[in-house]
Amino acid sequence: MWITILDFIFTLYRFMDRRKALRNILLGTGAAVFSVSGYKWYGITKRAPLPDLANYKGLLPELAETIIPATDTPGAKDANVGEFIYKMVVECTDVKSQNKFLSGLQDLEHYCHSKYDVPFEKCTTEQRETILNHFEKEGKPYPGILGKIQHKFLGDPFFVTLKKYTVAGYCSSEQGATKGLAYDYIPGGFVACMPLKPGQRSWATK
Hints:
mainly alpha, 0% strand
């Protein structure tokens, strides 16, 4: 009988030790998660090291040209979109999106070297498209209201900022508006809905 009672006591003691160990593990895991989350939050809310962006002035035009390449119309390089992206990130972008953009450029460089062992500028057209498709899928924002909340609290993902400024820069440039798109120098009366003529490009103005 005494052996049975002692066995029960030792079993209970061991069980309590397990519970204590489990509690410590959960507390430690929670602290680690909080620390990582806190570090990431600090990483996107700190003052962005914008001088570092100058190191990517050669890369930005290549990224933009991959999104809008020259064909029978001028490409993003012809429209000097790389410089537009640089100015917009420095002067017109919130801090969280600035940090994510800089971090995304670093990640893109590492991805190129790990996957193709060359910088983005030396990748083939097919490789460049594969790289940007990867970052587009990786940074795809949530749809609807969740996307708006994500933008407000976490900023825009790297590729969202890159594509947004590439399109805006191209469509508002002289090369893009007059040669890549249809531009009416002297618009007449406002017509709310007008069909495009056969072979006509999209209008440069909304």
